[in-house]
Amino acid sequence: MKVNVRYSNNDKPTQEELNSMEQKSIKALQTLRQGSGEGNDFLGWIDLPKEISLQDFDKMQSVADRVRQNSEIFVVAGIGGSYLGARMVIEALKHNFDTLLHRDYPTIVYAGNTMNEDYLAELMEVLDQKDYSLAVISKSGTTTETAVTFRILRQHLVNKYGKQEASQRIIAITDKEKGVLKNIADKEGYSTFVIPDNVGGRYSVLTPVGLIPIAVAGFDIKALVEGAKQEREKILFADNKDNEAIKYVVARNILYNKGKSIEILVNYQPNLVYLSEWWKQLYGESEGKDNKGLFPASVSYTTDLHSMGQYIQEGRRLMFESVLHIKNSNKHLKIPKLEENDDKLDYLLDFSLTDINHKAEEGTRLAHLEGEVSQITFELETINEKSIGEIIYFFELCCGVSGYVLGVNPFNQPGVENYKKKMFKLLGKE
Ligand code: PA5
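# 5-phosphoarabinonic acid complex -> structure
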């Protein structure tokens, strides 16, 4: 991952501001590495990429292979950090129209992340007709959305396959000893995987939480983890301003201190929409506390240039953009030469669609800089397992470091409890 920062005229920092933020960020990186900051009991993700053993990979892959053989659908039931990482990777890597193609591997569907009755009822209408397996993913084992969904689908599986086969079609991913899900899994004999104590939900994509669904979807989990491992080597130990992670942390905190309140993650390709959803959860839940933090938002260009683009160009000056620049597409198309230039598009004949997309990106950058929207760009060669692994580690590390620069604990989420308490009271839960 390479980072480029372009400040708009009004946002340009002085050399002093830059130096001071660089020093603060390097110190925060050291604090994180030494485990001497707040939330230091949740730092297991830092070394995860180098700690996953071949046996761990084999165990996850063999459960995934079983699902690939006996299921047309794989339901991933989890919410927040218990599903967004898997979904982000799968959406980024899969064929954009894969559900419309004839395939011999399971379609991944997501549940347990909403209370919507229609959604689950309609999913069950489909599951009535298809062979399926289910991963129930919850670190606490008690999250209501996931637990209610699991109760309903567990019953559905038992009715469909009988108790014994149902148990073989359920994979539980949860705490090593606590919570009702762990108790049920032990009692029923489900295949069970552990979410390490020291890894919080939104930092858990490289545990079985993310890796099992990704393996079931047919992607190379070793290459994904290898990408994260290589990124770790690059950015975890480099205590200097040229560290790409430090560049990002410095820029976003300088812009925050200059009064920007919104960071917009921008992609130029539809398969990265869930990367933005994962990133929003990671940064929103990690930094938004003590009345502080950038509000993480996202857009997909060029689609959203025809909707949100107007606001970003000329509305209230609240935001800066962080843009995912992917150099190469995985597929290639040529614009055809016609007999007649009746659509007046011959001026594009020398360009690929990716070239045109990149020109749109460049044009947007110039226009938005003119409109006082500073630009951070993340450069990646292409989208594949390895580069997604790099992105994961990069954003996770920057999030921890940036949280420390901001002066918050980036590893808790006390604010999430409030709605739960109020909901439970309304529901009469003891
Ligand atoms: O990042 C987090 O910790 C949260 O988003 C959790 O992942 C989410 O609330 C789900 O929690 P659990 O896995 O306990 O069901």
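# post-check
The CA atoms of residues 26 and 261 lie 23 Å apart.
The longest helix spans residues 385-406.
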